[in-house]
Amino acid sequence: MLGALLSSSLAKKFVMALTGLILVGFVLGHMLGNLQTFGAPSAINGYAYFLHKVLPWEVLWLVRIVLLAAVVLHITAAVLLVRDNRRARPAGYEKQKYKQASFAARTMKYSGVILLAFIVFHLAQFTLQVTDPAYRELRFDLDGKNTQDVYAMIVYGFASPWIAGFYLVAMGLLCWHLSHGVASMFQSLGLRNENWYKYLHRFAVGYGWVIFLGFAALPAAVLVSWYGGPQLVYAEAIQEAVAGWDGQSPLYVEYPVEKSDAVANLSP
Ligand code: HEM
After folding, report:
1. Residue 31 pLDDT > 90
2. Is the terminal CB of the chain with fewer CB neighbours within 10 Å at N or C?
3. Residue of 23, 27, 30, 53 to mutate, ligand 1, most atoms within 8 A of C-beta
4. How far is the CA of 76 from the centre of ligand 1 (A)?
5. For residue 268, what pLDDT is reported?
């Protein structure tokens, strides 16, 4: 009975929607967290310190396991649904169906596969930190606590136009994927009807754009700052530190004194 239920198309769509909802929520939270990089380096570094050192490790790992399970189930259900559709589709039906489904809907599998490749690279770069030996050595003094300089890692990470460009393309695809995915998530959860269709579709497209702009702002700002434009992030200070690095010692960036710090230093 349970096996039959899970093998139904409805159940697969439900699994896709539920796991999609988890991922949609994570992406929004992650984007908001990243925007702290536009503030003082201590903001994002303090946030990373909180996630890794203050939060109980069980909580961090629970979130990671839920995310991993959501990704695996989302992809499995997608593959099974594509297979079901292919089996059910009579010959000659394909053209007619294409007329109804939007371009974003038809290309979900391609945008999904490229996003998966992006996530694998992204984890290797910023979580496992295996793409550049400098990342692990970037250290930060957070009120006397020696912690990783995640701020410098992100900025230095996007100094390569290839990497920043790949992120910008991947964020565009994420926006594309969400603009259809969020709308179909509502439908699978039974929340989309004729009257609401137009609004939910607009919401999904708007959500995709918010996520795109929120994520894309950072690699774009780093490219501008790193290549001689206004210092939207502290690129010059990081450039100087990396240029004088011996390749093995811990690397501390000397950030310009922030306005609030300067005022605090002057007060008796
Ligand atoms: C400009 C875009 C992005 C930046 C700057 C960024 C930055 C980061 C950083 C610095 C970390 C490591 C956090 C830490 O260990 O303290 C991280 C982890 C992660 N990011 Fe991103 N990210 C971006 C986009 C994305 C997107 C679009 C996704 C998913 C679609 C994503 C998924 C993840 C995941 C799953 C982790 C691992 C979280 C964990 O360690 O448990 N990131 N990101």
Report:
1. yes
2. C
3. 30
4. 22
5. 43
Length of the chain as a residue count: 268
Q: What is the 3-state secondary structure (H, E, C) of 6-36?
A: HCCHHHHHHHHHHHHHHHHHHHHHHHHHHHH
Q: Is the pLDDT of residue 36 over 90?
A: yes
How many domains is the chain partitioned into structurally?
A: 1
Residue 201 sits in a domain whose CATH number is 1.20.1300
More confident residue, 85 or 244: 244
Q: Is 116 in the pocket of ligand 1 (CB under 6 A)?
A: no
Nearest atom in ligand 1 to the alpha carbon of residue 157 is 5
**Which region holds residue 66: left if phi is over 0, alpha if psi is between -120 and 50, else beta?**
alpha
What is the overall mean pLDDT for the chain?
Answer: 87
- 217: in domain: yes
Q: Identify the residue whose C-alpha is closest to ligand 1 atom 6.
A: 34
Interval between CA 134 and ligand 1 midpoint (Å): 18
Contact present, 99 and 144 (Cβ < 8 Å): no
Residues in a beta bridge with 44:
none
For residue 132, being part of any structural domain is answered with yes
pLDDT score of 261 more than 80: no
Which tens digits make up the pLDDT trace of 150-164?
999 999 999 999 999
pLDDT (tens digit, 9 = 90+) per residue, 56-106? Answer: 999 999 999 999 999 999 999 988 888 887 777 665 555 544 445 677 677
Give the three-class secondary structure for 147. strand
138 lines ligand 1 (CB under 6 A): no
262 CA to middle of ligand 1, Å? 32
Q: Is 147 in the pocket of ligand 1 (CB under 6 A)?
A: no
Residue 216 within a domain? yes
